Amino acid sequence: MERGTTALRIALAQYEPSLLGDWREYVAKVTAWVQEAVGNGAGLLVFPEYGSLELVSLLPAGQRTDFRGELAGMAVFHDAFRELFGALALRHGCYLLAPTLPCRAADRGLWNRAYLFSPSGGVGYQDKLMLTRFEREATELRGGAGLRLFDTRFGRLAVLICYDSEFPLLARRCAEAGADLLLVPSCNGVPAGYHQVRIACRARALENQCLVAQSSLVGLAPWSRWIGVTVGAAGCYAPPDDADYPNGVVAEGAPDTVCWLFADLDLVRLRQVRRGGADTHLQDWAGQEWLAAAPLLTEPLP
């Protein structure tokens, strides 16, 4: 893969769900969002987890009475949803991570899936691997089977959907396989949940000397039991380094504000920091598998 040599402008959505009148209204809304981001120079756009569930407002009232009904009802939008976001990425010449969408495969349950569309018409996806307790107990969602890496014009990236970011070995596998950038679409109903993901993003950037970008669903959607209240902010994080980002923060949005957050990323500089920065976390971990099996002693100290 040929790595890019210029900076990348990324747009991270602080996206508010809307009460929609029809499908055309959804198309107009999403199109306007994409046009705004691309008009501001963004080459990679990241929408949040469960952002697609504003489409629940187009379902019959009987399908909006419980969590399972909402997720299952989203199947009717799947093909049109893929076509819409794929066409937008192609038309505007950008990479576009669409809001995650509940997807059904035959009779094997539901997956929370993030589709990544390329400016040349390509499409890939990542399923959420680690389900929260609520997802496991209140729905028929299932965790995905593995991680996927995406080679783009500017470098290699991976997607960790919300709770996935809180499990360090998932990010570690991606970084060891050459991922420079981790995308974290998120959806949280309480501030504690948002901060868990935010803290995880910052930790993953430090541990793996990579860039981590979080998008967030924000606002009220009283017609949906699933996304009735969402809070948070977008953020982009780097490994803390004296030369660039001493605190590891590239950019952070104002909490619960509807907007795009833009950040300019230099992936060439990131690779230089990995090789010659003050610390070399990613290199130092290589070959240290013994740490997982290191003796662990408990000593009484009365």
Distance between the termini: 59 Å
Mean pLDDT: 91
Secondary-structure element series: EHEHHEEEEHEEHEHEEEEEEHH
| Beta content | 15-25%
Q: Give the fraction of residues assigned to helices.
A: 25-40%
Task: Provide a descriptive summary of the structure in words.
The chain is an alpha/beta fold and 302 residues long. It has a single domain, classed as 4-Layer Sandwich (Nitrilase/N-carbamoyl-D-aminoacid amidohydrolase). The chain has 8 helices and 15 strands. The strands form 2 sheets. Strands 1, 2, 3, 4, 5, 6, 7, 8, 9, 10, 13, 14 and 15 form a 13-stranded mixed beta sheet that branches. A two-stranded antiparallel sheet has the order 11-12. Helix 5 (168-176) packs parallel to helix 6. The relative contact order is 0.16. Residues 1-5 have low confidence and may be disordered.
Put the structure in a nutshell.
The chain has a single domain, classed as Nitrilase/N-carbamoyl-D-aminoacid amidohydrolase (4-Layer Sandwich). It is built from 8 helices and 15 strands. It has helices spanning 23-39, 67-73, 78-92, 133-138, 168-176, 191-208, 267-276, 281-285; strands at 8-15, 44-46, 95-97, 101-104, 110-117, 123-127, 149-151, 156-159, 181-186, 211-217, 219-220, 229-230, 235-237, 249-252, 259-265.
